[in-house]
Amino acid sequence: MPASAPHSFTTLFNHLFSWWQGVVCACAALVLTVPAAAQSGTTIRVRLADGFDFPVGKPDADGFYKARGYWPNGHLGEDWNGSGGGDTDLRAPIYAMGRGVVIFSQNIGVGWGNCILVRHIFREADGKVAMVDSLYAHLHERKANLHDLVEKGQLVGTMGGNNGMYPVHLHFEVRKNLHIGMNRSSFARDSSNYYSPTAFINARRVLPSSMQKYAVPVNNFAPYGRALADTSSDGARASSLDVPSFKGGSGTGNDDPKQDDDFWSRLKAKMRAGQTTDATEDKR
Ligand SMILES: [Zn+2]
Prior knowledge:
single chain, 284 residues, Glucose Permease (Domain IIA), 8-stranded antiparallel sheet, 3-stranded antiparallel sheet, 5 helices, 13 strands, 23% helix, binds zinc ion
């Protein structure tokens, strides 16, 4: 039949055209999805840390003291103060505890203020390569940007009190769990996720390093406040993330670190009321 030839041609053409469209669409989809995929799996190549030191009073925390220590289910980091007393340590330099890459640099307000997170890769004594995050909080100023490579003792910020919320001090954490970011309440508040910073540093003052670089993930935790559904529990221990309720005053339901730093809030209030001085309170 004469009409069948054009019809077949049209069918063939349509078939080829839709096939080609499919290829074009597939390519476009690939182009569109590649950046997103690359983003979630972003790594930055970093050399192994060659050892760690305290983030204040370079070297060895000279001229500074630990006003509050680390304890599980209580204070998840250490508070460092200048020996000069009062707020004489305002703007004191804060240093990266070791070589690493900046994975967070933001002022998130609330009880945190200016925060820097640095991710470190290093070789443990048993030969295994491990990673930790160090957190520097309540900073007066941040002196490092996201994805900066930093060395041990490099300036990352200056000491502050979160705009007058606390007497000036550094809140300093060392995390084993690289998914915490600024959403602490989603994770167990204990040694499964945190190190005692002083114990961690003292056990790793000098470490073997080399020129070799390792791929370090830099985008593997939720943005601050994004895990709101997690705030009903300690998260890592309880998986009931579908209960978006807040437990006021339960001690576990808030990402804001104020409960950690209640000590400083109370101290600040007492100091305002003239009931005590920094020095007497610190002897508790
Ligand atoms: Zn603290």
